[in-house]
Amino acid sequence: MRASWLRMLAIIAVLALAAAACGGGESSTEDTADDTASEAEETDAEEPADEADAEDTEEEPADEPTETEDDAAEGEPTGDNTLVFGTTEQPSTIDPADVYEKLASDILFNTTNRLVEFSAETNEIGPGLAESYDISEDGLTYTFNLREGVVFQDGSEMTSEDVVWSINRSLNIAHPDGASFLIGSITSIEAPDDSTVVITISEPNSTFLARLNYTVATVLPSDSDVYTAPDAKLEAPSDDDAGAETLLDEAESYIVSDQIVGTGPYQMTDYQPGVSMTLERFEDYWGEAPAIDTVRIVFYESTTQMRNALAAGEIDMAVNDLDPTETSSLEGEEGIEILTDAGGRTSYMVVDVTQPPFDDPAVRRAVAATIDRQRIVDEAFEGQASPLFSMIPENFDVSADHISDIEVELSTDSPIEFELWYPADRYTNQAEVAEIISRSLNESGLFNVTTNTSEWATEYSTHLNDGAYPIYLLGWYPDYLDPDDYIEPFYHSEKTFIGFYGSEEMDSLITAEQEAEPGTPERAEIFDEIQQLAATDMPFIPLYSEGQEAYFNERVQGVEDTLGAAQQTWFYVLSLS
To answer: Which mean pLDDT values do the consecutive 10-residue runs of the chain (577 residues) have?
Structure first.
């Protein structure tokens, strides 16, 4: 998942004007974003889609989340059927047409539904608001048969009209920070009757159902007073910055930032940005009722505050936010449990293949082969990560290591010099990761690497695609549970959200794997060819992967059911003892 950048650009511009009006003489920089795995930590351009951990090691009071004292008291576990969930992420949006970050996605996964849903029991995509579906022989037409009797949280009945309207809404708003590109292959969506939806896509794609599970395809009430939609796809009036800002303003005019109306197991009943959010069980939910009545999400300014709050019993649970040192410090706390499941979060280096010295594939391969990944895992993460030798993480069977087979073929009279960039305030322990990488490369005698950094929002994210950083660190959360989500967003010349790489051979291989049937030897073989070509061309250098990690007290049950490669946190599968 990626992170939001155009919205930040607008905010920063406003702040700059305010500073000038107050006599400030310093100018503010612009902002763009990844998300990879896109979130506001994270999160995932995907992204995606999307995720930044605070690097705070100072001891701070446990009772200082970003809320008032009265609000904090309300957020403490009461001993009743209320789960208090802590997070350092603060959603930049909660509108399905705009969401592309982890926490906001998780909120929508708990309050809304889509035609298909990921099943915690089967680890596969299955029925959601559609109780069944058929795919045409040519793989282009999907016919969905809707459940009867499903109602929205405003009391209105869900019909095919709502599905058509909602998906068209995301496609027509096409928010620059959102994930409409995931379902951009849709050429038509029709409702022949109240209980049937027919979707046609431009070319066969075995990942299409998985993409429909992402929040961009959330079904909303079409006749609600809350949501509105344009009649046609929004377009920028010009190709310059002014046109982009106009497009952003128009897209933002349709975005709802303070309400959610869905069909999910929980409904949002209170939201105080930066303070807390309350989700209450939706009594008319069409599926199995969740065991927990109320989920209160409390937003913290730092991981240290949140860690202390968990240890003090002020919150019940948190996911992914803590660094290795904080995680280790909880292992001795009585009544606190830590659970980790399969990988899915990945970290990697983006290489500008158009700039020297990285315009030479041999240099890129030498960097990838020389980095000591195990050293990163051991020293920066205390063993709480896994070395990564492919952009596809090891929790997928098709993941293959072709980097270890690389023979370094550099002939140089002096070490190759370059600067490695990393974000100062995003992802876990990035300064340490960058230093370990530079040391391992320098110790080889082939390179002379220095490191540099900048703030994510105000500078780093604005330079992801402009060539300012010839090589830099980035991270990714998955948008949908398929190895394709770790390939197309990076390597496809026309569908990538990041980087400087393009290859007709790679594009053809990606199209072939998307047309192949999932789980077949044919598709696995194509993925192997893709990873071989990726190791030869090396436009991205995989570093390490992390699993989803949950920290919780002993009264929270069922946590294992919400951990996994899908990287989705489902409150509705939990219970309290």
So the answer is: 45 36 34 36 38 39 43 51 94 92 94 93 89 96 98 98 98 92 94 98 95 97 96 93 91 96 98 96 97 97 92 94 87 90 87 96 97 97 93 94 94 90 88 97 96 89 89 91 93 87 97 94 98 98 92 95 82 96
The angle subtended at Cα 23 by Cα 22 and Cα 26, nearest 5°, is 110
Question: Are 183 and 211 contacting, i.e. CB atoms less than 8 angstroms apart?
Answer: yes
Domain with CATH 3.90.76.10 in the chain: 116-252
Sequence-ordered list of residues with C-beta below 8 angstroms from that of 273, at least 6 positions apart, any chain? 90, 91
Cβ-proximal residues to 276 (8 Å cutoff; 6+ apart), any chain: 67, 71, 74, 75, 270, 296, 297, 298, 299
- The CATH class given to the 343-548 domain equals alpha beta
Which superfamily, per CATH, for 116-252? Dipeptide-binding Protein; Domain 1 (3.90.76.10)
Gyration radius (Cα) of the chain, Å? 23
Angle between helix axes 241-252 and 6-21 (nearest 10 degrees) is 100
Cβ 506 vs Cβ 463: under 8 Å: no
pLDDT at 15: 35
CA distance 518 to 482: 9
Tokens of 114: 């889509």
**Furthest-apart CA pair in the chain: how many Å?**
74
- pTM score, two decimals? 0.79
Distance from first CA to last CA of the chain, Å, rounded? 34
Q: Of 410, 388, 407, which Cα lies nearest the Cα of 399?
A: 388
Q: What is the DSSP letter of 472?
A: E
Write the secondary structure of 333-388 as one string of H (helix), E (strand) and C (coil). CCCEEEEEEEEEEEEEEEECCCCCCCCCHHHHHHHHHHCCHHHHHHHHHCCCCEEC
What pLDDT is stored for residue 1 in this prediction?
A: 64
Strands 266-272 and 276-281: antiparallel
Structure tokens at 476: 């990714």
Residue 375 has phi, psi (to 5 degrees) of: -65, -40
Structure-block tokens of residue 152: 């929205």
Distance separating alpha carbons of residues 540 and 371, to the nearest angstrom: 13
Nearest to 529 by CA among 565, 487, 475, 469: 487
